Give the backbone structure.
Amino acid sequence: MKKAKRIISVLMLFSTAGLYGCAGHQGNDRALQQANADFQKVKEDTNVLRGAPKDVIRAGESLARAERLSTYWGSGADVNHYAFLSSRYSAIAREHTQLMLNQEQLAKSELERQRLQLELREAKLSSLQQQGKWLEEQMVALVTTQTDRGLVMTLGDVLFDTGNAELKPSANRTVLKLVQFLQLNPKRTVRVEGYTDNTGDEAANLDLSKERAQAVADVITDLGIDEGRIQVEGYGDQFPIEVNASDRGRAKNRRVEVVFSDEKGLLGAKR
């Protein structure tokens, strides 16, 4: 009787071990199936193969190791470990690929933006070339004097507040025409000359005249003209064009003159 009970106990023990083994194999099978499915997806995706080939190789190697271990008894933990690694490498491959695709999209967008900017510049250049003759005629109309220094355009006192060297916003339209003219005539250079009336200290007037001429030159360079094409001079209250005895005469003398070179870029002599 005791012997029969012992045999039954042993059979029950093997039966229980078998159940645990089946459960373990089922868990391993699920992990392997998931790892294999993940690997097949990345292996067949051309973008992943292009963007993360090393991760795909690692996923395949880990999956192969998990499959080899699954044939050995008692290696369930190792099977799960390498199956997990394979799935993780497949996920990393997808993440790296998405990052690559995002970067490619950004690069494509940047190229498109640059292309549109180029088209805008070309359209603007074409428009400027079409308007070039008209603009040059306008500039010549603004030039008030032909001197031994060359053609001279006078920017009057209304461009500045009294005693101030900062250009008023209303001056920008006049300066913009000058800039457009220089853009259409890239060989021409200019000399910007500042003048004041005789009110106040002579040294202060000289400084103010230079500052006003420089303010005009700064706007020209800010709008894209190379500073090497621009000279700046200040003459203070020298070389008045009207008598300083009246407000009108003094207003005429407070001015900035822009002297243009010839078409070869040669400027006339300074005063």
Residues 2-106 form one domain. The chain is about 65% helix and 10% strand. Confidence is low (pLDDT under 50) at residues 1-23. Residues 24 and 227 are 80 Å apart (CA to CA).
